[in-house]
Amino acid sequence: MSQPIVLLLSGPNLNLLGERQPEVYGTTTLEDHVVASTTVASARGLALEHVQSNHEGELVDAIHAARGRCAAIVVNPGAFTHYAWAIHDALALFDGPVVELHLSNPAAREPWRHTSVVAPVADGTVAGFGSLGYRMAIDAVASLLDG
Ligand code: CA2
Questions:
Q1: Distance CA 73, CA 79 (A)
Q2: Domain total of the chain
Q3: What is the model's pLDDT at position 1?
Q4: pLDDT of 55
Q5: Which of 33, 88, 102, 134 is catalytic?
Q6: Strand partners, 73
Q7: Is the Cβ–Cβ distance between 97 and 123 less than 8 Å?
């Protein structure tokens, strides 16, 4: 039988992780985060798919395509976190657990980062734990799926 799929979504600029601002976002590349996430997912009996886009509409399309196909979503929406209501609406139409993920802790940064339009449609948020956050978020959705 095929494994339930967790969709890991990465928003704008995260494709450049590891290249700039290591003091905020660490030195790990997005590809490395995906490998770590896949390992945790696999240990929990889940398959992982990853989509990164710098375009809001492409992330919305990926969320739509996950409906009825993926069991859960882990999403780091990047700066879209703070204003992308289309992503909020798309996630609200998704039927499984949703975990919002951030490498940094937006609540401890500039005031404009304190609002998340994704948080109201997420089951929970993992923020501020750097690369460890990816493992925590995958573990969280696995536990939510286990009930
Ligand atoms: O902490 C996070 O994970 C964020 O989602 C990252 C976003 C930021 O706008 C959110 O407030 C919090 C920014 C991602 C920027 O990605 C970079 C990639 C390479 C070098 C520098 C930044």
A1: 18
A2: 1
A3: 73
A4: 98
A5: 102
A6: 7, 98
A7: yes
Per-residue confidence (pLDDT) for residue 33, from 0 to 100: 98
The phi-psi region of residue 130 (left if phi > 0; otherwise alpha if psi is between -120 and 50; otherwise beta) is left
Pocket (CB within 6 angstroms of ligand 1): 13-14, 16-17, 19-21, 25, 76, 78-79, 81, 102-104, 106, 113
* 51-92 confidence digits (pLDDT tens): 999 999 999 999 999 999 999 999 999 999 999 999 999 999
Catalytic residue status for 134: no
What strand order describes the sheet that includes 5-10? 47-52, 5-10, 72-76, 98-102, 124-127
Record the pTM.
0.97
Domain extent at residue 28: 5-146
Tens digits of residue pLDDT in 2-56: 999 999 999 999 999 999 899 999 999 999 999 999 999 999 999 999 999 999 9
Q: Where are the alpha helices (H) located in the chain, listed in sequence order?
A: 22-25, 30-43, 56-66, 85-92, 132-146
CATH number at residue 45: 3.40.50.9100
CA atoms lying within 13 Å on the CB side of residue 67: 12
The alpha carbon of 80 and the centre of ligand 1 are apart by a number of angstroms equal to 10
